[in-house]
């Protein structure tokens, strides 16, 4: 189930695990994810060395930084897909396996199940939640309504465009009502019309549900547009270069990108980014 981004069964941590970590489970108010002393190496390359970060609850955080600095590595470690060498990552004091997590991969073609119709792809994770049939159906109905889907959900993935497949994979990640959603370059391979549609719908759902979200994007406009906070990373060994708040009203659309607030935040982000990439 890890590839689906859902850690299940939910809330079934062994009691001794919870007790063992209890004294280290304090977290600042308003923070959802606390990362302390995170270290990760690949062969000789140190990606993270004693890295600390607090991620606010119910906010959308975009992760932006130099090529290869470890953006995907970071969200994969937080999501529990990739082990860290040392350090601690807690969700309001809980482990990843005690948290409902959704994950949307860049490569939707490998993420959707080709043998299932769109509707069955989307509802797939529900079988692992302890929900009545009525509750399962109401989850599906709520999701369909939020996304206002025009797509024929009886189709198989091979009968859908790339954008439609990614829509299915986003809806599948959201059907479990995740506490935390991870998106790794979710729109990078899609046409602009679909990107605008998905950005708009996803924003609406995430803000309605107050889902804590971590988005990796190579597109600085997108990173700023969708974010409550833009987390700018340094080159390796990776640290936080700057954390820029962006709190203009939602919904944010293409028109937002020509406002002074957007341009100021993007300019600052670009300055920090360029300073980092020019470092030897
Ligand atoms: N499984 C692995 N084994 C060895 N090296 C790895 C592995 N996964 C990632 N790396 C290396 O670790 C570094 C960080 O990778 P990661 O994909 O997290 O960076 P990123 O910031 O997301 O990259 P990009 O900007 O290219 O998307 C890169 O140099 C990458 O080559």
Automatic annotation (TrEMBL):
<dbReference type="InterPro" id="IPR027417">
    <property type="entry name" value="P-loop_NTPase"/>
</dbReference>
<dbReference type="GO" id="GO:0005524">
    <property type="term" value="F:ATP binding"/>
</dbReference>
<keyword id="KW-0813">Transport</keyword>
<keyword id="KW-0067">ATP-binding</keyword>
<dbReference type="InterPro" id="IPR003593">
    <property type="entry name" value="AAA+_ATPase"/>
</dbReference>
<keyword id="KW-0378">Hydrolase</keyword>
<dbReference type="GO" id="GO:0016887">
    <property type="term" value="F:ATP hydrolysis activity"/>
</dbReference>
<dbReference type="InterPro" id="IPR003439">
    <property type="entry name" value="ABC_transporter-like_ATP-bd"/>
</dbReference>
<protein>
    <submittedName>
        <fullName>Aliphatic sulfonates import ATP-binding protein SsuB</fullName>
        <ecNumber>3.6.3.-</ecNumber>
    </submittedName>
</protein>
<dbReference type="InterPro" id="IPR050166">
    <property type="entry name" value="ABC_transporter_ATP-bind"/>
</dbReference>
<keyword id="KW-0547">Nucleotide-binding</keyword>
<keyword id="KW-1003">Cell membrane</keyword>
<dbReference type="Pfam" id="PF00005">
    <property type="entry name" value="ABC_tran"/>
</dbReference>
<feature type="domain" description="ABC transporter">
    <location>
        <begin position="33"/>
        <end position="260"/>
    </location>
</feature>
<comment type="similarity">
    <text>Belongs to the ABC transporter superfamily.</text>
</comment>
<keyword id="KW-0472">Membrane</keyword>
């Amino acid at each position: 189930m890890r590839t689906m981004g859902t850690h299940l069964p939910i809330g079934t941590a062994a009691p001794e695990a919870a007790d063992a970590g209890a004294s280290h489970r304090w977290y600042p108010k308003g923070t959802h994810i606390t990362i302390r002393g995170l270290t990760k190496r690949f062969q000789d390359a140190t990606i993270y060395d004693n890295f600390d970060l607090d991620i606010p609850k119910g906010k959308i955080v975009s992760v932006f930084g130099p090529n290869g600095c470890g953006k995907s590595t970071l969200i994969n470690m937080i999501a529990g897909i990739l082990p860290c060498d040392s350090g601690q990552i807690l969700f309001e004091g809980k482990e990843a396996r005690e948290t409902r997590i959704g994950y949307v991969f860049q490569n939707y073609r490998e993420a959707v199940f080709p043998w299932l119709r769109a509707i069955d792809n989307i509802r797939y994770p529900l079988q692992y939640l302890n929900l009545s049939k009525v509750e399962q159906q109401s989850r599906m109905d709520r999701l369909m309504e939020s996304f206002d889907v025009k797509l024929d959900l009886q189709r198989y993935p091979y009968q859908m465009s790339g954008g439609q497949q990614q829509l299915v994979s986003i809806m599948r990640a959201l059907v479990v009502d995740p506490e935390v959603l991870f998106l790794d370059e979710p729109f990078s391979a899609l046409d602009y019309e679909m990107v605008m549609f998905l950005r708009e719908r996803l924003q609406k759902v995430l803000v309605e549900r107050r889902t804590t979200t971590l988005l990796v994007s190579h597109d600085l406009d997108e990173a700023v547009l969708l974010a409550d906070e833009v987390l700018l990373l340094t080159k390796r060994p990776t640290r936080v270069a700057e954390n820029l708040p962006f709190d203009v009203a939602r919904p944010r659309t293409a028109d937002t990108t020509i406002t002074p607030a957007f341009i100021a935040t993007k300019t600052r982000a670009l300055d920090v980014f360029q300073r980092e990439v020019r470092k030897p």
